Amino acid sequence: MSETFPPCPECSSTYTYEMGALLVCPECGHEWTPENAAADAAGAAEEGVVRDSVGNVLSDGDTVTVVKTLKVKGHPTGIKAGTKVRNIRLVSGVAGHDIDCKIEGFGAMQLKSSVVKKA
């Protein structure tokens, strides 16, 4: 009896398999639980909703905190973890960069919502 597993949420591969309590994708190496897959599918239904690294919903004008140190091309120090960014704008940017902002000492740039936390 053949069991059908959902496709990989990262790369959409159909070759997923079960390993203990996890589902695994052999193409990209992503591992997830079946419960998370259902929650991710429900989250994908909320189009246009941008969430931070902990799952809080972000909106225009929010203040966020950078959660990990980021390298900035052409700048020797980068953006340190804990840097506050005020008055963000949500955009549909390039390569997952969905926050448009100005950071003191760096100027205007785009950030990914996965590297910030709502303050």
Automatic annotation (TrEMBL):
Q: Where is the Protein YjdM C-terminal domain?
A: 50-119
Question: What InterPro entries does this protein map onto?
Answer: YjdM, YjdM_C, YjdM_N
Q: Locate the Protein YjdM N-terminal domain: which residues?
A: 4-33
**What's this protein's family per the entry?**
Belongs to the YjdM family.
This one is known as Zinc ribbon domain-containing protein YjdM
